[in-house]
Amino acid sequence: MAVYHDAAIITLEHFSADELVILLLTPLKTKIKLSFTGIYDWGFTPFSTQNELFDLHVYDKRVPVPQTVADINDIPESYLQAIQEYDYTLVILDASVGMGGFVICEKFTESILDTSPSE
Question: What tens digit of pLDDT does each residue of 54-104 get?
Fold first, then answer.
């Protein structure tokens, strides 16, 4: 996984009920694409003028969600059960400032789009 500390959320695209993409820009100007398909649900705090991550956390059937994490992020118990029952992935965008939240989906992928410094 990439390093997400201080990465800025620059784009959130909802293509269909089934697909969500979030683009990040790291302090080193690397662009990272987070792709979510088979969306079960999501919850985000408001998008602001500054939206930076502290970190990103991924949980699934093999890495269970700690109850304290569920409580802090307002993840309903029924969602935690769905993660186990249907093998969903929970991705938590832990914000330093601005937008943060969670996505529960069937498939989560991350890819580096650009590592060249911007001019």
Answer: 999 999 999 989 999 999 988 999 999 999 999 999 999 999 999 999 999
Least reliable range by pLDDT among 10-24, 27-41, 78-92, 104-118: 104-118
SS3 category, 4: coil
DSSP states of 6-52: T-EEEEEEEEETTEEEEEEE-TT--EEEEEEEEEEEEEEPPP-S--E
| CB 17 within 8 Å of CB 40 | no
Q: Which of 53, 55, 22 minimizes the C-alpha distance to 36? A: 22
Q: What is the pTM of this model?
A: 0.91
Cβ atoms of 118 and 29 within 8 Å: the answer is yes
Choose among 57, 13, 59: nearest CA to 36.
13
